Amino acid sequence: MVTALGGRWVLDGPGTPRLSLTKVNIANGGSWKSESAAKGADVVALNVTADILHLTISSGAEPKGTLLDPGGTEHPLVEAPWYCVRDDGCKCPRKPDPGYPKFPAGLALLGYANPESATSIEVTGEKLDCKKDDESPDSGGGGGGGGTGKGPGLEVRSLAGGSELLGRITSGSCGFIGNGFRAKGTGSGYRFEMRIAGARRPGQFTIPNNDSGTYVKVSSGGGTYSTLGRNTEVLGTTGPRVAGLAIIRAVRVKQGKRTVTRYRIGVVIDDLVRGGKPGVALIPGRGGLLC
Which class would CATH give 3-126? Predict the structure, then answer.
């Protein structure tokens, strides 16, 4: 590898076999997949020209790896599974901005090692098609109404009388990464984050109070409402109780000529707190959030 990139990209240590660097074109519809056993590793050069770059990671433990974009920026593999490659962005008219990180077109490098368990990593190139229905990757779950009207996604609601709709999380990314399930989303000026420790497959999961491994966060305007810091007396009750529930369902959707697995998630939290005080509620809209 090129020594100018730094030590992590140099594969010439003692006993390291000399391997030729695989080069793969990731255009719209293109893909590359790597599967390795525990203590395995892989590296690839990706010539990225697709509109959207999508990473899917499946493993029993988080792989140690980095995606180096053509501009020289390093992205941890677990940071964001969707990237926007288009110069003019990936927002469709009349739909929320999916918020994908920018990724320059050109030659990228992906390298990883998985010291604890087998790992499968797939990279695909997707075309931005604003005419597709709500199953398309750019819609992030079918858009919404900017916080008004009915629609899919996750609804952020007031705890005051009438449970006023404050905003809606309508686009996001998620997956079973490392030793749990992670999800991120945006919409109506809100950001959503969820982690479920130990989740390995779709199902129903309890979200406990004040647990750093399994939690839900909703942020807006510099403030964050969370299950972290939530105790058993937040709502004037005592005794053990949980913060809420998350439901994850796998769905198979068409993307071009390929059929891929994505997830629909519904989250119900009766009170996300801020500074230990009551904040907002989170409930699923029609169909939940496709991510």
Answer: mainly beta
